[in-house]
């Protein structure tokens, strides 16, 4: 669940800051990656919408060379929301339903 967030972690580590363009692009890609891996239609549809909205915000941020007001907090909340809903889905799948994470059978 954390692997798609690696680009912003590496940017933070290297430059000690994260740009709004990196945040919006990562949020868009994170939402679509989590949505595609989900078995929930609701999470899939919601993540598609979130991904499109953050992709539009990324285009605006690149085009205007500045971000819209509140972009940084909205992106962080969006990433957190997708993370929490995906964590709840994974909890139900692997703990409640007892479906193994990866089944390695010989």
What is the 3D shape? elongated
Helix/strand class: mainly alpha
Estimate the mean pLDDT confidence: 88
Number of domains: 1
User: Strand-residue fraction?
Assistant: under 5%
The DSSP helix count reads 4
**Could you tell me the number of beta strands?**
0
Order of helices and strands: HHHH
Task: Summarize the structure in words.
- With 106 residues, the chain is mainly alpha-helical.
- It has one domain.
- Helices cover 74% and strands 0% of the residues.
- It is built from 4 helices and no strands.
- Helix 2 (20-37) packs antiparallel against helix 3 and helix 3 (41-64) packs antiparallel against helix 4 (71-96).
- The longest helix has 26 residues, at 71-96.
Gist of the model:
This protein has 106 residues and is mainly α. The chain contains four helices and no strands. Helix 2 runs antiparallel to helix 3, helix 2 runs parallel beside helix 4 and helix 3 runs antiparallel to helix 4.
Please describe the topology of this protein.
Elements: H1 6-15, H2 20-37, H3 41-64, H4 71-96
Helix pairs in contact: 2-3, 2-4, 3-4
Characteristic key phrases:
106 residues, mainly alpha, 4 helices, 74% helix
